[in-house]
Amino acid sequence: ARHVAALNHPHICVLHDIGREAGVDFLVMEHLEGQTLAGRLEHGHLPIDQALRHAIEIADALDKAHRQGIVHRDLKPGNVILTKSGATLLDFGLAKLAAPSSSPAQGSMLPTTPPNLTRAGAILGTCQYMAPEQLEGLEADARSDIFAFGAVLYEMLTGRKAFEGKSQASLIASILDSQPPPVSTVQPLAPRQLDHVVTRCLAKSPDDRWQTASDVRLELRWIAETVAEAPQTVAGQQPVIRRPGWGLRLRAAGAMAVAAAVAAVLAWNLKPSEPRPRVGVARLSIMLPPGDQLAGLSNPSLALSRDGMQLAFVGARAGRPLLFLRAMNSTDMRAIQGTEDAANPFFSPDGQWLGFFAQNKVKKVSVASGTVQVLCDASGEGGKGASWGLDNNIYFAATNVSGISKIAASGGAVQQVTRLNRDNGEVSHRWPHVLPGGKAVLFTVWTGPGSDERHIHAQNLETGERHALVQGGESGRYVSTGHLVYAREDALLALPMDLDRLQVAEVAPISLAERVRSGSEGAHFDVSDSGELVYLQGNPQRHERRLSWVNRKGTAEPLPIPARRFEDPVISPGGRHAAVTIYGGTDQIWIYDFSRPTLTPLTTTTAGSSQAPIWSPDGTRVVYRGTRKGFRNLFWKTVDGIGDEEQLTTKENTIQTPGSFSPDGKWLVFIEVHETTGVDIWGLRLDGERKLQPLLTGPSNERAPRFSPDGRWLAYVSNESGQPEIYVRAFPSLSDKQLISTEGGNAPLWSRDGRELFYSDGDRLMAVSIGPSSALSPGSPRVLYEGRYVPSP
User: Global pTM?
Assistant: First the structure.
């Protein structure tokens, strides 16, 4: 005790006095306020910078003790307390000055108490952290403490114990004979030099270990200095960015069908004197586990950690979206349980957490422990992007009709960050990206679905001042080379950007990649702080499709017109025409004449895009969704082109998409996406005052309503079971609800005679027979054919 009291060190608990009371020896020690390292590790591993700092402090404390001839012999997380001033080493109760004579003949006593209890005897310490020589009853010296230090350091870095076993015997065998997996395979963020430090600490023979704690401390300090020079960001701290001139290194990952991802690693130098980058390409492939697929491709499905070392993406297991995680320096990947139905993943600045949208919520999951936490509501399907700032706030777009909001990463009240300017036609703000320094945020101003209707702005978070950066671009990301990377249609482009002035150079953008998967819901790519890029490859025909007839056997007959960016095809009641959306700078409705054959534009307005047509029962009008003055309401227009379009609804803060007419033309049913209520089915009475009426509303999302040919039934899609399924209800009572699909379904369609109900299940077209009686009596779903088609209503 006198020797321990003489240890004057900032990271060793002070021993003030010793005494004896009622036959009990006691120590009077310094009172410390904080949390034990063991308690902290219950919540997962420490961030790399914190682990290094505390490890250096503990190594320094051990070096001080060893120089005074004191061996701790019970170093473990429970004997380290974390205070505001750093880590402090506790409990020298089993420390020794000189090694006592010990041999098996003297009666080694193996610990039989639980692993976290200290048992005195010839073998002293806590079994989980004891060196092999201690377990064998041999003499312990300073190098035994170094072994324990290596086990503690491993646990700090990975959140896992270095040695484990189902019993005391198997634990001892593990310590004596096995090595834990390298730190870098468990924690991809850890510097590779730490593998060498930890492995040498945990060498079985004391002669093979570091010989002094001072050696370990010096090695850790060198690693910490190396890490500080590398590009990294830590929550709550200013990022340290290394700017290698104009160098920009990009890593691109693509998708091939739905079974595997194919990646290309691109490296080039962006130099002011060269108009185009010099590109070198290497290929790698990312294979999903057997039975898994890529999924969630309607929403951006990739996230890259800020240091470029971890890739998260949305896959599908048993047909349900799920997040997968892969270290970029490893071929292994793992599914993260509890992230079902995930969309739009995003990393925390330190890479320890992964945020995502699921079940109309913003959530986060610990990369180490897999613990999932719900942060707040996000109505709509999948949200519209999020970014985790260095201020530990998450900036997110909750719906496709809202601005950018923020919430503390620990949860709490949601605060509005950006406001929509309806006078400028702003429908929503999407895909936020917090800029380095945390003083501004990039986001996409969405004035419509066309490529000319998406614009990149930046807003100063302190003053609220907004700067327009790019017209006709989306999903802006800043990289430390001083460039703004963004998407336009299926191309990725880059412009030099002044981060302080929030301006981009007035020069032609540099093309980084083409054939990037993108669509109305955003582009599938992400960029690390240092300029590494991952993206999902798109269709080589740039989303162009052929219009085709497909019979019940799956045989396709293309129509005699060139492929274009077709969407939403729907056949007229008489079968002579089809209405279809053609995507472009602004999306418009076109009419196809089967007999001629020709395409004629129906909507030619320059005020905004028009999409999702349906026919009136008499075939004289087409109803569609129009984006006008910042709102997306319902319009209709006569097919002969005479007269202007007529607006049917004027509701604000919603997106309305037509679904189906009742056969008598008295009802128009449609879906409505609202920023607070989600996706619901509404009806519009057309035989009178044109009153809006909610039909199917609630916590689940309902969409794709379709009237049966006799008008007695309404088919629709709902996710009330946790996945989209096809239901049918009687109309207008909405009673007698029946489940039609059995393993998920979308896009319900009735046959012309009402005797069958079709729907899509992935690439399969399913059919269900409907009985002829007045009561609905559906049969079992059966597969008609498989093929990658967009079905026509």
Answer: 0.55
- Supply φ then ψ for residue 782, to 5 degrees: -135, 155
- Radius of gyration of the chain, Cα coordinates, nearest whole angstrom: 32
- The residue assigned the tokens 């700067």 is 467
SS3 (DSSP) at 60: helix
Q: What share of the chain is helix, strand, coil (3-state, %, to 5)?
A: 15, 40, 45
Dihedral over alpha carbons 656, 657, 660, 666 (to 10 degrees): 30
Per the structure block, which two tokens stand in for 165? 């076993």
| 480: pLDDT strictly greater than 60 | yes
Residues in Cβ contact with 47 at an 8 Å cutoff, skipping those fewer than 6 apart: 234, 235, 350, 352
Confidence of residue 106 (pLDDT cuts 50, 70, 90): very low
For tokens 């079940």, name the residue.
359
Instruction: Report residue 201's pLDDT band, with 50, 70 and 90 as the boundaries.
Output: very high
Cβ atoms of 751 and 784 within 8 Å: the answer is no
Residues 201, 209: contact at Cβ < 8 Å?
yes
Question: Strand, helix or coil at 555?
Answer: coil
Mean pLDDT within 81-96: 78
Which phi-psi region, left, alpha or beta, contains residue 125 (left: φ > 0; alpha: ψ -120 to 50)? Answer: left
Sheet holding 361-366, edge to edge: 343-347, 353-358, 361-366, 372-377
Alpha-carbon distance 129 to 116, whole Å? 10
Residue pair 309/330 in contact by the 8 Å Cβ criterion: no
Q: In whole angstroms, what is the distance from residue 748 CA to residue 437 CA?
A: 49
Cα separation, 280 vs 165, in Å, equals 48
Question: Quick one: CA dihedral 631, 632, 634, 639, positive or negative?
Answer: positive
Q: Provide mean pLDDT across the span 138-165.
A: 90
CB 323 within 8 A of CB 343: no
CA atoms of 578 and 562, how far apart (whole Å): 15
8 Å CB contact between 392 and 236: yes
pLDDT value at position 41? 87
List the catalytic residue out of 63, 74, 292, 526.
74
691 or 91: which leads in pLDDT: 691
| Residue 737 near residue 726, CB atoms below 8 Å | no
Q: Would you state the pLDDT for residue 299? A: 75
In the block, tokens 């019970």 appear at 74
311/523 Cα distance (integer angstroms): 16
Mean pLDDT of 213-234: 70
For residue 664, how many C-alpha atoms fall within 13 Å in the half-sphere facing its CB? 8
Whether 74 is catalytic is: yes
Residue pair 489/525 in contact (Cβ under 8 Å)? The answer is: no
